[in-house]
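CO-FOLDING WORKSHEET

Operator: S.A.
Ligand of interest: pyridoxal-5'-phosphate
Run index: 388
Mode: holo prediction, single chain
Checklist:
[x] sequence pasted
[x] SMILES validated
[ ] output reviewed
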Amino acid sequence: MKETTRLNSATLGRANSRRAVNTGVERGSTVLFESAEMLYNDDVRPTYGTDGLATQDDLRRLLADLEGATESFILPSGLAALTVPIFAFLQAGDEILVVNSCYAPVRRFVETQLKRYGVTARYYDSRLSPADVLALATPATKMIYVESPGSLTFDIQDIPGMAALAKARGILTLCDNTYGGGVLFKPLEHGIDLSMQALTKYVGGHSDVLIGSVSVRDPALAAALYKTIKAWGFFTSADESYLAARGLRTLHLRVKQSGDSALKIARWLETRPEVLRVVHPGLESHPGHDIFARDFTAANGLFMVLFKGNGDHQSQAFLNKLKLFGLGFSWGGYESLAVNCEPQVRGRPKLNDEPDPYLAGSSIRFYVGLEDADDLIADIEQALDLFS
Ligand SMILES: *Cc1c(COP(=O)(O)O)cnc(C)c1O
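OUTPUT RECEIVED:
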C-alpha cells in the first residue's frame, strides 16, 4: 500500500474495546502487572508511564513507517530531538561538525552545554561539498550534522553524498528532516543514521503542539537512544502524542497544499519589480535546485524574499502592513506567517570574509499555510509599496 493509505488506514483505535476509529489518549504513571513474577522482569515493557503507553506507541509506529525506520523515538520538543541524539553518541574528547545553516537554537546547545562536557563543535559552510566537509574531519570527529534546505537560508546540501562518505569513515550522521515533514524526503533511505523531525511543524500542523522525533534503522543506535532518553527522564505526554498521531492522517494533503501555494506565490514574487531575489529551492533560480530536485519530491511552504530595501526598518513596516500573514516564529500550521530575517542572518556563524548574500536588501521569510494563494498574493501586494 502507498504511504498515504498506510498512514490513514492504520487501525490504531480498533484495538481498544470501544472500537473508535483513531487511537485514544492513554494517560498513566503506574502500570499494573499481572503477576508478582513480572515486576522485575526486564523483558516486560512498559514498566512505568515514562516508557510511554498505547498513545505514544501508536505514534511511534506510524512515524517509523513514515521515516522508513525500524524505531522512532519521541521527545518533548523538536529541539530535544536534536540535543538528545547528539548527547547520546558523543563523549568528552569527541567532535561534531555542524552545518552553519542549522536551526539556530542548536548552536546555543553545542556552544553552552556540549562544551561543558568536553565535546567540541565546529561549524562548516552549508555550501561545501561532502568531500570538502569530510576533509575537515579529524579522528575526533564522531558526528556530522546536516540540514537541507537549511533553516532560514534554504542552502541545499548533498545529503546522500555526505551520508555515504561519512559512513565510509565511521562517522555518524544526524539529519534535521523537519523541512519535508517526513513526506518530501526520506533521510534513512539515503544512508543517514539519525533522522530527526520537529513534529511541532507539519505533523502537528495546527500550531498547538510541541513534540519531536528521532528515527533510526540500526538496532544498536536504537538501543543507545532508548537508554539515553530513559536515563535523562524524558517523557512525552499522551496528549501531545495523540495530536501528532492525528496530524499524520492529513499530513500529505497539508504539505502538498502549503507547498503548491508557496511555489505559486514565489513565482509571482519573482516577477515583481520590488524584489531582488526569491530564495526558494523549488525555483530553477535557486543555486541548489538541481540537488534539491534530485532528492526531494517537492518543496514545502517556506521561502525567503530579499526585497529592494535598506534592511530591517523597511522589513518591519512591510510586516506591520500585512493582514493575512501572522507575525510569529515557527511554521507548519494551517495559518500563514511572516518574519523579518536580518537579526537571525546576522547571528549566523561567520566562516569567511565574503559579504553575507542574505543581507542585501530587506529579507522576509514567508510560511504559506492553507489560505487561498490568491488572497495571500493580494495581501503581499497591498504592502509592496513599502519597498518601492
Ligand atoms: C522548529 C524547528 C526545530 C525545533 O522544533 P521545536 O519543537 O520548536 O523545538 C528544529 N528544526 C527545525 C528545522 C525547525 O524548524
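REVIEW:
The CA atoms of residues 183 and 252 lie 7 Å apart.
Residues 3-249 form a domain with the Aspartate Aminotransferase; domain 2 fold (CATH 3.40.640.10).
[x] output reviewed
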